[in-house]
């Protein structure tokens, strides 16, 4: 590498006017030939340019092209090495010539432009005092002329050099210039923030280059002149080589180049001098800051060493062990350990340390992390792993952490637990490759943690708080050692060439062409180990495969080509093999291609239940390996197939966890290599396998297994949307949607479950009809999901549609003979009524909830008896409605009965049993009876839910609210307040500020404040709830009454009176409550007290006449939603009752038909039907207290 002078400035030039023009040639032409016209032999940089621009010194930089384009030559990060040399040589030449501040203009052809960009980025980064002089190249550069520089890479089909007969294809380095290359992306990312400092002119070739039979532009216009802002661009009517060769000043192609150089030379001095002045100030401030830091006292280390007890590590949740062939990266391990440092280095540590590991796929980032965990887990109390290949998988990963920690299976619970954990932990966030991902949103905010992030996105380094490392190829010696270790694990094998030096020679050539990538080397080693090709023949056959793959449109980059080519060689051998085990291996590989690449459990293929669709002729035909019932023979066959894939290093198998894993690059290629129709076939097969391993009974024992399925279901659904613009609407797809939705719902991912259920319902409605049992089953599931999302209006509509379908669809003709026929009582219909009871209760329409609940229970008692679980569920729903209507005795009798049988059938800790125990405790609390028993019941339920569901599960938070009610009732008000105050931030991050659970918690907190005499705190808390509840909802009355009572205590008499008038007017308008309802009477009683304070006796008399129950409510009960129980139990709105009560046919009315809302309507008039449809269910709003 040399820097030669082509032209000196004229002797008359002033030193302050001189500019250095630095020319850098491209590939395949040397430093002189690049700029020389082949006919006239004019070297225009020497012969033409000084004539027009006399105040220039022209320097020509030459580098050794052969090291870059020759197959098998060593090329570890050659661009970076050449850039360092360019900066060093250019600085030395200018310094010795006493011209270190002289302006620089670069003119670069092809690859020379990439070298200049890399050199400028390197020069800009030299800010340390020891090397700050190298920054002068960046500071002095004024402009750059890029002549067909492949900023965005070249096309894969472009031939850059003649191919040698014995070495087909181009070198590894040249392939790094292909579009999508990780090296090019890195150079562009480094240069982009610097580009605004320079004048840039992009030129592109307008004539195609002919190389044998191939004719094309070497660098197309989009790559040579990208859409950069404030950049000049121009095409030159010449080929790639000819665009830098000019014979005279009259050459039309030369004129725009000359004009740019002339203008740059004229303007450069003023700008560069200003830049030097500014840079000197910046460097002086930076040196002062460094000096100040050295003078700052250091905080003492809390833990001077990492010595830990032998059993210190409690959690190690990683997907698998590192590869047995893992070699090297020791320097990286030391660097990472130094960046992270000791646990709790400083007393004032306030945030976690984040190290970002970035680099191309297959560079060994994941294996490095696995090895790092293996060697350092003793330093950490917990080690956790989150796959970040998609946002769905991130949520699943953190949910798993939250579940393991007993906090709840949600992303927020897992993150918060890590943030609050005082013990030292290590978190690996793997495969965070999505450029649009909001990575900081997934980093725990606090805690005593270290975080390793692996990514292909170099921009992720901005989130590193402790440092970052770039992963590319291995060190050459380590790569050779790794390849030989993978190829010859037994050093005495006869397959080895006799001479170790020859083995190392061949290994060196292979490692160079594989870019020193660990994954590619592992595949190559497996190919040699399995004697597919010997080490001396491997490179020749590999290059043939690689050249073929370079033309494949789905290969995204040259780096991926290396990995995929090494994978294709052994996989093609497996495909060609005729044995059953090899065919099974190929079939499994096709299925794995559509599952998630990490943690593929063997149990997916163990169908422990008899699949009802197995004999269905419409079902997907599965491969032979999955046809038999799972037994020891089937398991052995499965493991033989897995063994073949492992032997060829195609998949990794973890025996202890009975799970497989693949590298993401290989996983993607295993899918992309298949034709589209074949992809669709194997996707349908994979979805069928997943659906069949999901039991329709959702046994509690399989909950953990089903949670493991989530990433694989996500992967299939993503592939489905990618392959189909409109996914097929078949019954099989509907069944798969439905079963997948069960898994999502079980993990509280209600929105995803709802979307899948809607699709399943729509397909079945279209193909089977609205009244088919499968359609109804899917609709019931959809209704329950809408209930959990508190989408009450939609849930009621869904349940009404189910009820209507079941009214018409009866099991037998005899069901039509049951009198009265318009009140069917077959089991499915009664179940639909029970579902509707639950939803109406949540909507606050409790009189209707009671009516449908009683019908459901009565029908099920007749058909199934009082001990059937279905009957018990209906009884529970009705008991809950009774409780909130104030009919406590009826509620308690049902709850006691249900609880006794659920204990016998399901046990104490079954979710249904816990729900009943909790409701019974609240019933006793509301009745003011057996309060100690009530306390014990709700406390035990809370403890059980914390153990089973986690501390932050929605039902656990529900229990916290109920325990607080009982505590307030028994006088433990301070404990109730503390529980609810602690719960508020949990509710906010897990459910949201506007969720009904937040309203419930705030309402109960306000009640506890009131009981403690903290009226101001109560007023602020309850007011925030009042503002979120619609006025026509029953719970608005309850919360407004409590708020008004607080105002009364605070002395805001006038506002309290206005609120009482407002509430009584709303009751009269909506008729949600009768005039003798306990809550109505309590409001009137509060108003009477206000009148009494004001001496308005006449108004009190009038009020008592209208509300006779005034004066019987105890003062201590006035803020209790359950204790107000005097007067009638309930009152059903007369209009509703009339609309809901069916009438017998009246012959005077004419021919009658049945209405879907249980009423009879005249065929000749729609008035009655319209009124029934409109009146029975008024506007519904989710209830906000429980």
UniProtKB/TrEMBL annotation:
Alphabetical list of Pfam families matching this protein: NB-ARC (PF00931), TPR_10 (PF13374), TPR_12 (PF13424)
Ranges of biased composition (kind: Basic and acidic residues): 1135-1177
InterPro entries per record: AB_hydrolase_fold (IPR029058), NB-ARC (IPR002182), P-loop_NTPase (IPR027417), SERAC1 (IPR052374), TPR-like_helical_dom_sf (IPR011990), TPR_rpt (IPR019734)
Compartments, record wording: Endoplasmic reticulum; Membrane; Mitochondrion
A GO molecular function held by the record: ADP binding
Primary subcellular site in the record, as a coarse category: endoplasmic reticulum
Residue stretches making up the NB-ARC domain: 350-489
Organism for this UniProt entry: Lophiostoma macrostomum CBS 122681
Protein known as: TPR-like protein
SMART domains: TPR
Keyword Calcium among record annotations: no
PANTHER family the UniProt entry points to: PROTEIN SERAC1 (PTHR48182)
Keyword Repressor found: no
């Amino acid at each position: 590498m040399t820097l030669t002078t082509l032209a000196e400035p004229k002797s008359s030039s002033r030193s302050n006017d001189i500019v250095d023009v630095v020319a850098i040639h491209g590939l395949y032409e040397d430093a002189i030939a690049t700029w020389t016209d082949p006919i006239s032999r004019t070297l225009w940089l020497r012969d033409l340019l000084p004539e027009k621009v006399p105040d220039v010194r022209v320097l020509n930089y030459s580098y050794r092209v052969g090291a870059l384009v020759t197959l098998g030559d060593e090329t570890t990060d050659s661009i970076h090495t050449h850039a360092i040399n360019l900066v060093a040589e250019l600085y030395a030449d200018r310094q010795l010539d006493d011209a270190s501040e002289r302006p620089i203009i670069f003119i670069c052809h092809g690859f020379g432009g990439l070298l200049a960009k890399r050199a400028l980025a390197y020069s800009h980064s030299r800010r340390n005092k020891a090397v700050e002089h190298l920054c002068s190249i960046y500071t002095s550069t004024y402009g750059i002329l890029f002549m067909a520089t492949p900023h965005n890479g070249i096309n894969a089909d472009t031939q850059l050099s003649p191919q040698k007969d014995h070495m087909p294809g181009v070198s590894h380095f040249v392939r790094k210039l292909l579009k999508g290359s990780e090296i090019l992306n890195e150079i562009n990312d480094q240069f982009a923030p610097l580009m605004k400092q320079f004048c840039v002119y992009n030129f592109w070739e307008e004539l195609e280059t002919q190389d044998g039979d191939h004719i094309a532009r070497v660098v197309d216009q989009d790559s040579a002149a990208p859409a950069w802002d404030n950049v000049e661009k121009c095409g030159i009517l010449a080929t790639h080589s000819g665009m830098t060769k000019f014979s005279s000043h009259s050459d039309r192609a030369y004129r725009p180049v000359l004009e740019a150089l002339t203008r740059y030379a004229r303007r450069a001095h003023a700008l560069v001098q200003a830049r030097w002045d500014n840079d000197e100030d910046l460097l002086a401030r930076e040196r002062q800051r460094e000096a100040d830091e050295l003078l700052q006292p250091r905080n003492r280390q809390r833990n001077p060493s990492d010595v830990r007890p032998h059993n210190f590590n409690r959690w190690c949740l990683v997907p698998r062990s590192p590869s047995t062939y893992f070699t090297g990266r020791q320097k990286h391990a030391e660097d990472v350990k130094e960046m992270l440092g000791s646990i709790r280095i400083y007393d004032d540590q306030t945030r976690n340390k984040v190290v970002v590991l970035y680099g191309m796929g297959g560079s060994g980032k994941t294996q490095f992390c696995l090895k790092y965990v293996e060697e350092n887990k003793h330093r950490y109390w917990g080690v956790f792993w989150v796959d970040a290949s998609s946002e769905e998988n991130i949520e699943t990963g953190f949910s798993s952490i939250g579940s393991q920690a007993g906090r709840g299976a949600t992303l927020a619970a897992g993150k918060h637990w890590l943030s609050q954990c005082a013990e030292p932990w290590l978190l690996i966030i793997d495969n965070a490759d999505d450029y649009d991902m909001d990575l900081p949103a997934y980093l725990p905010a606090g805690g005593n943690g270290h975080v390793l992030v692996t990514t292909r996105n170099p921009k992720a380094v901005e989130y590193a708080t402790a440092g970052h490392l770039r992963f590319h190829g291995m060190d050459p010696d380590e790569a050779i050692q790794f390849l030989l270790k993978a190829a010859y694990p037994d050093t005495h094998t006869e397959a080895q060439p006799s001479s170790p030096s020859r083995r190392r020679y061949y290994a060196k050539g292979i490692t160079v062409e594989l870019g020193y990538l660990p994954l590619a080397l592992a595949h190559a080693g497996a190919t040699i180990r399995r004697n597919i090709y010997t080490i001396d023949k491997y490179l020749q056959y590999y290059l043939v495969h690689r050249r073929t793959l370079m033309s494949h449109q789905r290969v995204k980059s040259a780096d991926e080509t290396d990995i995929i080519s090494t994978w294709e060689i052994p996989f093609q051998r497996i495909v060609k093999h005729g044995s059953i085990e090899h065919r099974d291996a190929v079939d499994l590989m096709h299925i794995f291609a559509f599952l998630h690449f990490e943690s593929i459990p063997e149990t997916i293929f163990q169908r422990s239940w008899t699949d009802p669709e197995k004999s269905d002729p419409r079902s997907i035909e599965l491969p032979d390996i999955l046809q038999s019932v799972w037994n020891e023979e089937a398991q052995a066959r499965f493991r033989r197939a897995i063994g073949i894939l492992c032997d060829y290093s195609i998949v990794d198998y973890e025996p202890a966890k009975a799970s497989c894993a693949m590298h993401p690059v290989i996983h993607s290629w295993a899918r992309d290599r298949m034709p589209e129709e074949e992809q669709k076939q194997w996707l349908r097969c994979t979805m069928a396998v997943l659906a069949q391993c999901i039991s329709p009974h959702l046994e509690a024992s399989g909950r953990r297994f089903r949670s493991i399925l989530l990433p694989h279901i996500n992967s299939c659904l993503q592939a489905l949307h990618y392959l189909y613009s409109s996914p097929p609407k078949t019954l099989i797809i509907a069944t798969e949607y439905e079963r997948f939705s069960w898994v999502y719902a079980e993990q509280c991912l209600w929105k995803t479950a709802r979307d899948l259920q809607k699709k399943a319902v729509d397909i079945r409605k279209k193909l089977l009809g609205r009244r088919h049992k499968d359609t109804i089953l899917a609709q019931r599931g959809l209704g329950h999901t809408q209930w959990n999302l508190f989408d009450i209006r939609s849930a009621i509509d869904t349940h009404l549609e189910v009820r209507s379908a079941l009214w018409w669809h009866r099991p037998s003709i005899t069901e039509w003979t049951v009198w009265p026929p318009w009140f069917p009582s077959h089991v499915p219909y009664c179940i639909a009524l029970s579902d509707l009871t639950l939803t109406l209760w949540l909507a606050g329409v409790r009189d209707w909830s009671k009516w449908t609940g009683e019908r459901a229970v009565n029908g099920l008692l007749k058909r199934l008896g009082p001990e059937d679980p279905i009957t018990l569920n209906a009884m529970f729903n009705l008991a809950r409605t009774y409780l909130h209507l104030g009919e406590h005795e009826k509620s308690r009798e049902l709850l006691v009965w249900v609880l006794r049988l659920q204990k016998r059938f399901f046990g104490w800790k079954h979710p249904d049993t816990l729900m009943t125990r909790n409701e019974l405790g609240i019933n006793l609390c509301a009745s003011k009876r057996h309060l100690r028993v009530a306390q014990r019941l709700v406390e035990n339920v809370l403890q059980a839910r914390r153990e089973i569901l986690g501390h932050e599960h929605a039902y656990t938070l529900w229990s916290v609210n109920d325990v607080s009610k009982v505590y307030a009732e028994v006088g433990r008000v301070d404990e109730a307040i503390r529980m609810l105050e602690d719960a508020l931030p949990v509710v906010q991050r897990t459910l949201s500020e506007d969720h009904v659970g937040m309203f419930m918690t705030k309402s109960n907190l306000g009640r506890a404040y009131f009981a403690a005499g903290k009226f101001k705190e109560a007023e602020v808390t309850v007011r925030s709830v009042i503002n979120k509840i619609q006025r026509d909802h029953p719970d608005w009355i309850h919360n407004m009454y409590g708020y008004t009572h607080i105002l009364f205590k605070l002395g805001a008499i006038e506002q309290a009176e206005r609120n009482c008038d407002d509430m009584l007017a709303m009751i009269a308008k909506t008729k949600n409550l009768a005039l003798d309802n306990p809550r109505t009477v309590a409001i009137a009683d509060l108003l009477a007290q206000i009148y009494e304070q004001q001496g308005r006796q006449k108004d009190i008399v009038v009020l008592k006449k209208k509300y006779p129950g005034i004066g019987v409510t105890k003062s201590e009960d006035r803020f209790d939603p359950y204790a107000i129980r005097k007067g009638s139990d309930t009152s059903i709105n007369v209009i509703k009752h009339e609309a809901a009560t069916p009438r017998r046919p009246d012959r005077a009315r004419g021919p009658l038909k049945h209405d879907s809302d249980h009423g009879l309507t005249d065929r000749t008039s729609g008035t009655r039907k319209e009124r029934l449809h409109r009146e029975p269910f008024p506007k519904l709003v989710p209830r906000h207290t429980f």
